[in-house]
C-alpha cells in the first residue's frame, strides 16, 4: 500500500462536474493498493497517518498529529501510485490490486479512520475525478507499507 499524504487547508473532489467530497483543514490521502497487500497492513497504516506529527503547534513546529488537531481526512483511491515506469514510455500498472479488492481495502481504511473519530470524506472509486486542493506548507509525504511495516518490525 502506498499513501501520498498532503496536509491541506482545503480539498475537494468532483465527478462529472458535481462535488462529491470536501474537507477544510486536514489530510488528503491518495491511496494505492498493491496486488500483494495483506489486509493486515490497513490498521497500522491508518494509525501511522493518524499519529504523524505534521501539524504545527503554538511555536510553529510540526509537533501535533491529525488526531490532536481534529483534522478531517479525504481519501482518494489512486492505482497510479503503483505505476512502474522503469521501462519504456508507458507505465505498467500490473502491481495494482484488482478493483474489487482495492475497493474493499479503501472501505476498510475509511472505517478505521472513522472508528478513530475522524470526519472522513471519499472520492468515488473507479470514477474519473477532479481533485482540487490547497497544500498547506507545503507538506507532502509518501508512505509505503513495505517500508513502514519492515521498520516497525525491526524496532519492536
Automatic annotation (TrEMBL):
Q: Which GO terms describe its cellular component?
A: cytoplasm
Which reaction is catalysed here? a D-aminoacyl-tRNA + H2O = a tRNA + a D-alpha-amino acid + H(+); glycyl-tRNA(Ala) + H2O = tRNA(Ala) + glycine + H(+)
Q: Which GO terms describe its molecular function?
A: D-tyrosyl-tRNA(Tyr) deacylase activity; Gly-tRNA(Ala) deacylase activity; Ser(Gly)-tRNA(Ala) hydrolase activity; tRNA binding
Q: Does the keyword Membrane apply?
A: no
Tell me yes or no: is ATP-binding among this UniProt entry's keywords. no
- Major localization class: cytoplasm
Question: Which Pfam families does the annotation name?
Answer: Tyr_Deacylase (PF02580)
InterPro entries hit by this protein? Daa-tRNA_deacyls_DTD, DTD-like_sf
For this chain's UniProt record, which GO biological process terms are given?
D-amino acid catabolic process
Keyword terms? Cytoplasm, Hydrolase, RNA-binding, tRNA-binding
Q: Which CDD domains match?
A: Dtyr_deacylase
Q: What is its EC number?
A: 3.1.1.96, 3.1.1.-
Q: Name its cellular compartments.
A: Cytoplasm
Motif range (Gly-cisPro motif, important for rejection of L-amino acids): 137-138
Quote the PANTHER family the UniProt record gives: D-AMINOACYL-TRNA DEACYLASE 1, D-TYROSYL-TRNA TYR DEACYLASE
Recorded family membership: Belongs to the DTD family.
What does the protein in this record do? An aminoacyl-tRNA editing enzyme that deacylates mischarged D-aminoacyl-tRNAs. Also deacylates mischarged glycyl-tRNA(Ala), protecting cells against glycine mischarging by AlaRS. Acts via tRNA-based rather than protein-based catalysis; rejects L-amino acids rather than detecting D-amino acids in the active site. By recycling D-aminoacyl-tRNA to D-amino acids and free tRNA molecules, this enzyme counteracts the toxicity associated with the formation of D-aminoacyl-tRNA entities in vivo and helps enforce protein L-homochirality.
The entry describes its oligomerization and partners as:
Homodimer.
Notes concerning its domains: A Gly-cisPro motif from one monomer fits into the active site of the other monomer to allow specific chiral rejection of L-amino acids.
Please give the name of this protein. Answer: D-aminoacyl-tRNA deacylase
Q: Which organism is it from?
A: Thermobaculum terrenum (strain ATCC BAA-798 / CCMEE 7001 / YNP1)
Amino acid at each position: 500500500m502506498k499513501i501520498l499524504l498532503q496536509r491541506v487547508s482545503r480539498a475537494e473532489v468532483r465527478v462529472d462536474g458535481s462535488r462529491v467530497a470536501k474537507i477544510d483543514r486536514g489530510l488528503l490521502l491518495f491511496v494505492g493498493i498493491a496486488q500483494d497487500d495483506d489486509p493486515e497492513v490497513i490498521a497500522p497504516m491508518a494509525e501511522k497517518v493518524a499519529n504523524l506529527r505534521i501539524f504545527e503547534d503554538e511555536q510553529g513546529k510540526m509537533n501535533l498529529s491529525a488526531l490532536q488537531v481534529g483534522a478531517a481526512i479525504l481519501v482518494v483511491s489512486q492505482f497510479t501510485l503503483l505505476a512502474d515506469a522503469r521501462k519504456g514510455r508507458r507505465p505498467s500498472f500490473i502491481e495494482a490490486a484488482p478493483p474489487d479488492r482495492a475497493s474493499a481495502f479503501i472501505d476498510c481504511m475509511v472505517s478505521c479512520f472513522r472508528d478513530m473519530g475522524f470526519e472522513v470524506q471519499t472520492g468515488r472509486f473507479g470514477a474519473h475525478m477532479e481533485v482540487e486542493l490547497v497544500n498547506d506548507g507545503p507538506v507532502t509525504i509518501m508512505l509505503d507499507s513495505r517500508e513502514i511495516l519492515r521498520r516497525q518490525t525491526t524496532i519492536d
